[in-house]
Prior knowledge:
Blueprint: H1 3-21, H2 26-39, H3 45-48, H4 55-72, H5 75-84, H6 90-105, H7 110-127, H8 136-147, H9 155-166, H10 178-193, H11 195-199, H12 206-212, H13 214-217, E1 218-223, E2 245-252, E3 255-257, E4 271-276, H14 282-285, E5 290-292, E6 308-315, H15 331-335, E7 337-344, E8 347-348, E9 363-369, H16 372-377, E10 382-387, H17 396-414, H18 420-433, H19 439-443, H20 448-466, H21 469-480, H22 485-503, H23 506-524, H24 528-540, H25 550-556, H26 563-590
Antiparallel strand pairs: 1-4, 1-5, 2-3, 2-4, 6-9, 6-10, 7-8, 7-9
Amino acid sequence: MTIEIVFVISVVLVMLVCLIKEVARPAFIVFCALAVLLLSGILSPSNALRGFANEGMLTIALLFIVAGAVQQSGMLNHLMMKALGSGKNPRRSLIQMMLPVSSMSAFLNNTPIVVMFTPVIRKWCKDRNISPSKFLMPLSYAAIFGGTLTLIGTSTNLVVHGFMLEQGMEGFSMFQLAIVGLPASILGMLYMGTIGYKLLPSRKTAEESFNESSREYLSEVLVEANSAIVGKSIEEAGLRNLQGLYLIAIFRNGERTGPVPSYHKLKAGDRLIFTGLLSTIVELQNIKGLRIETGADFKLEELQTGSAHLVEAVVSHQSSLVNLTVKESKFRNKYDAGVVAVHRNDERIHNKIGDIALKPGDTLLLVANKDFITRGSLTRDFYVVSALEEPGIVDTKKSTMAMCTLIAMIILASFGIMSMFKAALLAVITLFLTKTITFESSKKHVQFDVLLLIACAIGVGIALDQSGAATFIADHFVQLTKGAGVIGALIGVYLLTTVFTEIITNNAAAVLMFPIAFAMANQLSLDPMAFFVTVAIGASASFSTPIGYQTNLIVYGPGGYRFSDFIKVGIPLNLLYMIVTVTITYFVWII
Length: 591
């Protein structure tokens, strides 16, 4: 083992530990690892930057825009409501929901699909008195199923495809992955409609939990005429930095102000609504002229007046809010929204709102103005921002244009008329020229953090390959699985890829496993396609944790799930996918 191999493996291990512990954003961690490899001389500048010119990565960037155009057209929501049906037979509705979601996810990025359909399915379930926890996890899984069907189904497939092109290979064809993905998806849906449905919990959503327990964390205080704080601002009255309470709204003459700015002047008769630890309400009792309405039965719905809305937001992996408290993030000023409560792992966090350090997957209940949805969608801080009321109107002209462009792109790439990159580029140009999507609106659909992570991870993958570290790891892996033969090697690659996907990210897992899988195929003198398909499927098939894959994280809070729910339902599904993948790849590409 050379010093270079030891150094590269050490950098990768430190990177993995940092990703697991979430010490910073994933893209920043991988970027730092790439920078270390570049500055140490392991990678030349040209090799370190190869990921930024990788065809697979650039194709992903273009497909974000295409998917965004279809998403904002509003047509898919309408189709979903038709697919769900009456709901008289929930299991049938579940399958009817999973089929179109998988089909859409085969050609569109699965993250925006789950973002779109989460509020639609929740409302459908609420109207029929069905627990959304029976449908939201299957929604995420259906999107993952679809991602394994085509080249463009998920960014992971395109990452592996881009690496194959760099090695001088042809890469995946449009439907090559469906050889494995289609049988696995069919069995996966059958599992979710039978055994999986029984294992799924029937649980209250975060929204319902917030509503039912509102009396535990909301309090109402009346400003009396003789109060010493009348005429003072919130800051001057000492209401901004209370120990355990957080002022979220003020009602005056039937009108609501919230979030409440520090300079807002108080008047006699104002009703102040606080959230937080009611055990600390003694702070307010010490202020003369404030009367605590102990018998009041204040409901969350009262916060929705005029332009105010109750909104749920799920904190994303890429969020700048992660590891910051609500107060440190200056949430109120940044989003013009007040945090009413925070839900994590099916429980409301019983702390002062301002002191809660946010984590990926946290569901925030917010009081926000109408423009919050627009402002929220322009940031990567939230995976989903779902208003608790019916969204949007379908633009028929834009819907038709977006769908026709998508279909044309798929046909051009499928029949080899153009490469996937060129077809996607032509589709984006068409969408811009027809004004189906504007340059400004397209920016909110491009996940720049994901692209940076992929580009940097490719550089790290190149370092593994060129330093000999990938060959070294592959050699030991081959020795370890020697007794189990080729099937043992494929199982080993699949399991390691799946573990990486569950603890870091799917794209980083694919990038790290590609050079190792390639080296293993060369050492065993086998067709590397079997190993590449195994890596692509293994990196996408993330079912057993809510944190390993974006779509699982999106439904985690809104579905009222616990971490153990994903383990219970997902591990059998992971094993099912592994058996199907290894069996088919062995018989199609090895024998």
